[in-house]
Amino acid sequence: MIEYALGFGFTAISLALLLNLWRLVAGPTVADRVLAGDTMVTNVIALIILFGIQQSSTMYFEAALLFAMFGFVGTVAYCRFVLRGDVIE
Amino acid sequence: MSIYYEALVSLLIVAGSVFVLVGSWGLIKLPDLLRRLHAPTKATTAGVGGTLVGSMVYFFALKGGPSMHELLITLFLFLTAPITAHFIAKAYLHFHVDPAAALPPTSGEHGWSTFDALPEQRNARPSEPTDGR
């Protein structure tokens, strides 16, 4: 039963990533692209967790945690760069 | 693993994935950025939260002990989501919204706090509130 749920989950999240990619390419403003990138990071975290369930391995949580941290740092740095023209003043 | 655990894990995975898909669909569908900001919060909280709780239940049933890694990821996502949303909204406001035309006036002496730091606006604003307020 879990295998079918995982198949559905992989399909749904991959489709969500494609929709985010569309917004990342099409998005009219810079803030739209930053938001699309941040959403992609969130969706990739969900994808990694599902992959960890499929492999029955707890090793992938560290990867998900690293994605969460670097996604946050990247989004904040990009927004600061857009706002100030510099990341660290 | 018993059938009840399997059903619970499958339900949580499917629910989380549906929320992730709905969040990204909203990112495409909604008309402008300040409305688009609303949609991916569903993916962050309910979507990733659902898959994380499913993962917690799965590894609890598999290994017999509670696993705490997922709580760390949940805590980190819940702590950082408002900060990123705040920064994205701030970048959008500064570049695409004219504060004099699009935003209603505040009741006090100061303007909207995110625009108060702009030097040209601080110089243009009189130090005393005008009698029209």
From TrEMBL, chain A:
Keywords: Antiport, Cell membrane, Ion transport, Membrane, Transmembrane, Transmembrane helix, Transport. It is found in: Cell membrane. It is a multi-pass membrane protein. It comes from the Bacteria. Pfam families: MrpF_PhaF. The chain crosses the membrane at residues 6-22, 34-53, 59-83. Its main location: membrane. Belongs to the CPA3 antiporters (TC 2.A.63) subunit F family. This is K+/H+ antiporter subunit F. It comes from Aromatoleum diolicum.
From TrEMBL, chain B:
It comes from the Bacteria. This is Na+/H+ antiporter subunit G. Pfam families: PhaG_MnhG_YufB (PF03334). The keyword Cell inner membrane does not apply. The chain crosses the membrane at residues 7-28, 43-62, 71-89. The keyword Transmembrane helix applies. Keywords: Membrane, Transmembrane, Transmembrane helix.
